[in-house]
Amino acid sequence: MLVVSAVVFLSLFGGYRDDIDRSELRTAGNALSVEIIRILRRAADYDREQLVTLIREQAEHAGLIVILTDGKGHVIQGFEPSPGFKAGHADVSYEDIASQGEINGWFDAKLHIGGEWRPSLVRVLIPPGAARRADSGVLMTVTFGDGRGFGSLDELVGRLIVSGLAGLAAAVVIAMVLSRQLMRPLEALTVVVRRFGPDRYDMRAAESGPSQVRELASAFNAMADRVADNERAMRGFIADVSHELRTPLTSIRGFVEALRDGTATDPERQASSLEVVHEETQRMLRMIEQLLDLSRLEAGQSRLQRTSIDLDELFGYVDSMFSARARAQGIDMRLDISPAAPTIEADYDRLVQVLNNLIENALRHTEAGAITVSARGADDGLELSVSDTGEGISPADLERLFDRFWQPESRSGPGAGLGLAISREIVRAHGGRITADSDLGAGTTIVVWLPG
């Protein structure tokens, strides 16, 4: 970047210096040309000594080399403004200038003096009317007396090189310091990443160093937390499944062994044993189906068949499914649809599954009182709630209510504790949310919100 900056600066400043040098030559040349033209116009045979003196004085004053050349670009015969320049000549002639259509003004040229070519400016010094012939054109050529060319940046380039080297050294030192500060936390993070894995899920990176490294370490730690949580959840899931399957399998094995060994010889006892085996087998099949359904929902592989939900039809189905059972348990089942409840697009069967799970749990944990199923509009969506007057849930247990395989200690009746977990995933798949509120000994309310 230092080199690029220097090149751009030199290219821009070089043109600027070039314009300054040309302007300096034109200014000095204009002042001199006025006097020379005045002398040339005075007579055909001008005063050579006066002209030579004038040119030398002006040249010494301005620090320039000033010579007169004829129309061919050669120093005028007999004219020597400074010793050694008589053999000099310019690379431009009067004809070259006249061919450009305008002879008044300054033109770029090169002056050959002292065995080298120097950039210079040239100008016609006689009126246009007296310069019709090439051999009568008198040209004045000016250049710098110190031999420098237009836009000379030798001194500036040297200073730029020195300052550039100093800047480069400072940049190297700063880069080494910064890279050191950056590499240390990166190396530490690399060590943590390499060691992170089975049996080392507790590894965490130190969130130190530059902001980008801190953000990277924070992102890694967040990922590590999720991986560790998933690992714990997977192990817990395996343990829960093993526990839930062990009980029915143990029961089935006992009854099968009794039938195989002839212990159960009584036809009535045999029939009872087979009935238990059948019920436990159905229980395992239901649990496995629920597990597969929950896995598909969590993986996003279960597609929703959205249709317009008729709340009257939905609540009519709920009434037909649970009202008789509620009456048999001595529970008052109430259905309430608000007139302002909106119509939403949702999967009807999945919505029925959610309500079935919620009402089933409410009936299981309510010995007397009422269960209220309601629908109303809320937050630009539909809010479904199931409230009961049952045993309620403690605040500590409420946090685990939607975890798979979890059930309160007061559990009664069949079930593997998967219904609420499945309900939560169904609601999430719809873009909604499910929450629970409970007072121990007073009842529980579960609220499902679905977007409109």
Strand order of the largest sheet: 1-5-4-3-2
Give a quick account of the main beta sheet: strands, pairing sense, barrel closure.
5 strands, antiparallel
How big is the Rg?
51 Å
Distance between the termini: 57 Å
Quaternary structure annotation: single chain
Which structural class do the helices and strands define?
A: alpha+beta
DSSP strand tally: 12
What labels would you give this structure?
about 450 residues, 5-stranded mixed β-sheet
Can you characterise this structure?
There is one protein chain. It is built from ten helices and twelve strands. Residues 127-135 have low confidence and may be disordered. Strands 1-5-4-3-2 form a five-stranded antiparallel sheet. Strands 7-9-10-12-11 form a five-stranded mixed sheet. The radius of gyration is 51 Å and the shape is rod-shaped. It has 452 residues and is an alpha+beta fold. It is 52% helix and 17% strand. Helix 1 (2-42) runs antiparallel to helix 4 (154-195), helix 6 (267-298) packs parallel to helix 10 (419-429) and helix 7 runs parallel beside helix 8 (348-364). The chain starts with a helix and ends with a strand.
Summarize the structure.
This protein has 452 residues and is an alpha+beta fold.
List the helices and strands and how they pair.
Layout: H1 2-42, H2 48-62, E1 64-69, E2 89-90, H3 94-98, E3 107-113, E4 116-124, E5 139-144, H4 154-195, H5 211-261, H6 267-298, E6 306-308, H7 311-328, E7 331-337, E8 345-347, H8 348-364, E9 369-378, E10 381-388, H9 395-398, H10 419-429, E11 433-439, E12 443-451
Parallel strand pairs: 7-9
Antiparallel strand pairs: 1-5, 2-3, 3-4, 4-5, 6-8, 9-10, 10-12, 11-12
Helix pairs in contact: 1-2, 1-4, 5-6, 6-10, 7-8, 8-10
